[in-house]
Structure formats: C-alpha cells, structure tokens
Design goal:
Layout: E1 2-9, H1 19-34, E2 40-46, E3 52-55, E4 58-61, E5 66-74, H2 77-85, H3 88-91, E6 95-100
Antiparallel strand pairs: 1-5, 1-6, 2-5, 3-4
Length: 104
C-alpha cells in the first residue's frame, strides 16, 4: 500500500459562511472522514485562509484557497482518486489534488 496526500482546494473560504452552513460543512466532513478510518494515515489539518506563498519574486498572497490535507493509504493511484472523488470538497464544487508520496 502506498501513501497519498490529498490536498483540498475550495472555491472560497467556507469559514465566512453563516454558522448553520459551517456546521453542515463540518458535519459532512466528519461523516466522510468517519467512513475512511481504514485508509487514513494522518487526518491532516484544516488551513486558515491567510496563507502566503514564497517564490523567487518574494512573498505574496496565495492564489488558491487550499483548505486542508489528509494522508491516506491506497493500493494504487486509482483507489486514491476514488477516495478523493468521494470527498465533501468535490461535492461542494472544490478540487482535491492527489499526490503519491515517494515512500523513501
């Protein structure tokens, strides 16, 4: 089994939603994570919307709203993609980037 890092990119900063909608987002996320206990290696963290990016040109605001990450174990890339596709982020119109870890 290989490890895959799933990086979640939301359409917008969901923390600015009304409280009842934030609760729905968090409930959906908790239910999704609860169904994946057999594959989660690191449940990751949620990111605050105030990220910065560093480049040769200096420091600036991030261009994308990355909302968090998790690390899962999967038998292959296709299984990791299926896990990502089932996430609430995708259901809400966001994107999940999937990377296989080198595992060295």
């Amino acid at each position: 089994m290989a490890k895959y890092i799933l990086v979640f990119r939301s359409k917008s900063d969901w923390s600015t939603l009304p409280k009842d909608q934030i609760e729905k987002v968090m409930q959906a996320w908790g239910e999704w994570v609860g169904t994946m206990t057999r594959v989660i290696v690191d449940k990751g963290e949620t990111f605050k919307p105030s990220g910065k990016e560093v480049s040769p040109d200096g420091v600036g605001n991030t261009k994308d709203f990355l909302s968090g990450y998790i690390i899962v174990e999967a038998k292959d890339f296709d299984e990791a993609l299926a896990i990502a596709q089932s996430s609430p982020t995708v259901e809400r119109g966001g994107v999940v980037q999937v990377y296989e870890a080198f595992g060295v």
